[in-house]
Design a protein that fits this description.
The complex is a heterodimer of chains A (74) and B (598). Chain A has a single domain, classed as Roll (Ubiquitin-like (UB roll)), CATH 3.10.20. Helix content of chain A is 9%, strand content 30%. Chain A is built from one helix and five strands; from the N terminus they run ββαβββ. Chain A starts with a strand and ends in a 6-residue tail after the last strand. With 598 residues, chain B is α+β, with helices and mostly antiparallel strands. Chain B folds into three domains: 198 residues, Aldehyde ferredoxin oxidoreductase, N-terminal domain (Aldehyde Ferredoxin Oxidoreductase,  A, domain 1); 167 residues, Aldehyde Ferredoxin Oxidoreductase Protein, subunit A, domain 2; 151 residues, Aldehyde Ferredoxin Oxidoreductase Protein, subunit A, domain 3, CATH 1.10.599. Chain B contains 24 helices and 17 strands. Chain B has a six-stranded mixed beta sheet with strand order 2-1-6-3-4-5, sandwiched between helices. In chain B, strand 14 and strand 15 form a beta hairpin. In chain B, helix 13 packs parallel to helix 16 and helix 17 crosses helix 19. The chains are: A mainly beta (74), B alpha+beta (598). At the A-B interface, strand 4 of A face helix 8 and helix 9 of B.
Chain lengths: 74, 598
């Protein structure tokens, strides 16, 4: 199965903006972070298909995961 | 005197009479300062039904008791008046250095009355106020006016607040600018200043704002600086990327209003995001007085440079107009700063006009400038300039989106509440924030109760943005706390890191008072109710507590909020109950007695 990972702000630095990843089995977002060497503490917000999600959310084929560090404003 | 907050200077521009009064200590305690105290005087001194652009309206500049103090991010002042855009109370907030300088000059509140017989500016130098001829500056842009006045007054360290041509032309979306790039942007406060023939207020002060309890204040300042630095939002996100870092979060959530709120996903948002701004255009920071957060940007595109753009500005000219080129956004932002236009209302009005062209309502033959087509960078730059200059169709657009669309019989295409343009979050995917839009005392606004904090960012706790449960209570809390922060003279962004008890502590150590957090929040509620009473007396009926029909009836078609509309009819009765108002949205006698406000 394939998921699309989008990284933003400081999480991009030294990594990537958008990447498609092949996963052997459905796994939670937490495992994806491990795969990408991203500490959980770095992730402030996680969206899966535009929905706010916890890191234990299990990913399905075609999911879009958007990860943000601490940001805010307005 | 340490912790003193109580000097009011009154200038009658018609007669030239200048007087100084002492603010009653009990009144200052009841309404805190800034937004609260300024609104108290406005409500007390003007007929709420007054024509906002007549000499009978007043324009009040109100600092808070913490403005200019050593507390973090204490840079704010409020411009309070009756709004020519909404007909409600207007209280527009700005940072920079002008507000603190006013306090250093010994003035806490400045009330401007009447209308000068010819263009004038005020010079305030350590409490001494003089009125001067500003004929040479009338018609001039903000940058030239600021530089010219600093030279004329021979006060290079003075701070200048002024209007641009948009305020002179009485555009209901005209802003007041200070320090060139900081705007008391919303609700047309610049037009009220223009209607008084007042071009500028130049301030120089050599005093300081000393705390009543200096040792405690210093210890608290250090604690709060550490807290702000350790917080991810105020310590890393905002300092590094500025407010525009929100673009991608809001867009990925499917609530980034695009092409006049026709969708919530802007396909090229990433090209016009805070990250892209930092990579390609950022040249420095535009930091407010004593601010440890330093979110302000300074950007350059070709030969155009200046402060901004902020998130809301960037959105208004980018996604809302379907434009991906940040270079032209920087140029449109610059015209807003120079002509003195509110960036949200200006961009949103162009977006509305673009939809009117898209729908064939506005005919290409009437468009005496670049075609008003979604995606056109040339259009956003030139139409901003034309609105600022009041040229051709631009003069009509400078009335704001509601009045402009109304001229063509389609006011429903204006994405506004109480005629003020909505900011950069689609309420169909944010039930609490949408309720806040509908009930804001100054019309469409994100900073009367920034529910994005809880519904998107998870501060102070994460709320499901699509749920309506508990949202009325949250909206009330956010609104009351914001009224406190605005009245203290602090930047709202402190609230990402600072808790209500800290606001209490700051207020107490600086003023020497000893209030509780509950008392402070009750003052916030008092201020909110007072604003509501002003609006009701001004003829703003509770049935204006609503949202554009599109947001109530037409579900979003894509993204994280697909299929959603805003459920205002379910939320509003609960909100009125939480407020202790009648089902018709009027504060009850019991509530007003409890808050000791009338």
């Amino acid at each position: 199965m394939q998921v699309e990972v989008r990284l933003f702000a400081a999480l991009r630095e030294g990594r990537f903006g958008t990447q498609r990843l092949e996963l052997a089995v459905p796994c939670p977002v937490r495992d994806l972070l491990q795969l990408l060497s991203i500490c959980e503490g770095e992730v402030f917000l996680c969206l899966v298909n535009g929905q706010h999600s916890k890191l234990d959310r299990k990913l399905a084929d075609g999911d879009v995961v958007s990860l943000f560090p601490a940001v805010g404003g307005g | 005197m340490s912790g003193y907050y109580g000097t009011l200077v009154r200038v009658n521009l018609t007669t030239g009479k200048i007087s100084t009064e002492t603010i009653d200590r009990a009144v200052a305690g009841k309404f805190i300062g800034g937004r609260g105290l300024g609104t108290y005087y406005l409500k007390k001194e003007i007929d709420p039904k007054v024509d906002p652009l007549s000499p009978d309206n007043k324009l009040i500049f109100a600092t808070g008791p913490l403005t200019g103090s050593t507390m973090p991010a204490a840079s704010r002042y409020m411009a309070i008046t009756k709004s020519p855009l909404t007909g409600t109370v207007a209280s527009s907030n700005a940072g920079g250095y002008w507000g603190p300088e006013l306090r250093f000059a010994g003035v806490d509140l400045l009330i401007l009355e009447g209308k000068a017989p010819k263009p004038a500016y005020l010079l305030i130098h350590d409490g001494k106020v003089t009125i001067h001829d500003a004929s040479a500056y009338w018609g001039k842009l903000v940058g030239e006016t600021t530089d010219g006045l600093l030279a004329e007054c021979r006060e290079p360290k003075a701070r200048v607040l002024c209007i641009g041509p948009a305020g002179e032309h009485l555009s209901p979306i005209a802003a007041i600018l200070n320090d060139k790039y900081r705007a008391a942007g919303r609700s047309g406060v610049g037009a009220v200043m223009g209607s008084k023939n007042l071009k500028a207020v130049v301030v120089r002060g050599t005093g300081k704002v000393a705390a009543a309890q200096p040792d405690k204040a210093e210890a608290l300042r250090k604690d709060l600086l550490a807290l702000i630095k350790a917080n991810g939002v105020t310590g890393q996100g905002l300092p590094t990327y500025g407010t525009a870092v929100l673009v991608n979060i809001i867009n990925e959530s499917g609530i980034y209003p695009t092409r006049n709120f026709q969708t919530g996903v802007f396909e090229t948002a990433n090209q016009a995001s805070g990250e892209a701004l930092k990579e390609k255009y950022l040249t420095g920071k535009d930091v407010c007085f004593r601010c440890p957060i330093a979110c302000g940007r300074y950007c350059k595109a070709d030969d155009v440079e200046g402060g901004g753009p902020e998130y809301e500005t960037l959105w208004a000219f980018s996604a809302d107009c379907g434009v991906s080129d940040l270079g032209v956004v920087i140029k449109a932002n610059k015209w807003c700063n120079e002509y003195g236009l509110d960036t949200i209302s200006a961009g949103a009005t162009i977006a509305c006009a673009m939809e009117m062209v898209q729908r064939g309502i506005l005919k290409p033959g009437e468009v005496d400038g670049p075609p008003l087509q979604f995606g056109s960078g040339a259009a956003i730059v030139e139409w901003t300039r034309k609105m600022g200059a009041g040229e051709g169709l631009g003069a009509k657009m400078a009335l704001g989106s509601y009045r402009f669309a109304e001229l063509y019989g389609v006011p429903e295409l204006s994405m506004s509440v109480k005629k003020q343009e909505l900011p950069a979050y689609d309420p169909r995917g944010l039930q609490g924030h949408g309720l806040q839009y509908a009930t804001s005392n100054r019309g469409g606004c994100h900073v009367r109760g920034y529910m994005i904090s809880a519904e998107v960012l998870g501060i102070p706790e994460k709320l499901d943005p699509h749920s309506i449960e508990g949202k009325a209570k949250w909206a009330k809390l956010f609104q009351d706390l914001t009224a406190v922060i605005d009245s203290l003279g602090l930047c709202l962004f402190t609230s990402f890191a600072v808790k209500p008890d800290h606001y209490r502590d700051m207020y107490n150590v600086v003023t020497g008072r000893s209030v509780t957090t509950d008392e402070l929040l009750a003052a916030g509620e008092r201020i909110w109710n007072m604003e509501r009473l002003f609006n009701l007396a001004a003829g703003i009926s509770p049935d204006q507590d609503t949202l554009p029909k599109r947001l109530l009836k037409e579900p979003l078609l894509e993204g994280g909020a697909k299929g959603k509309v805003h459920r205002l009819s379910e939320l509003l009765p609960e909100y009125y109950r939480e407020r202790g108002w009648t089902p018709a949205g009027v504060p009850t006698e019991e509530k007003l007695a409890q808050l000791a406000v009338k």
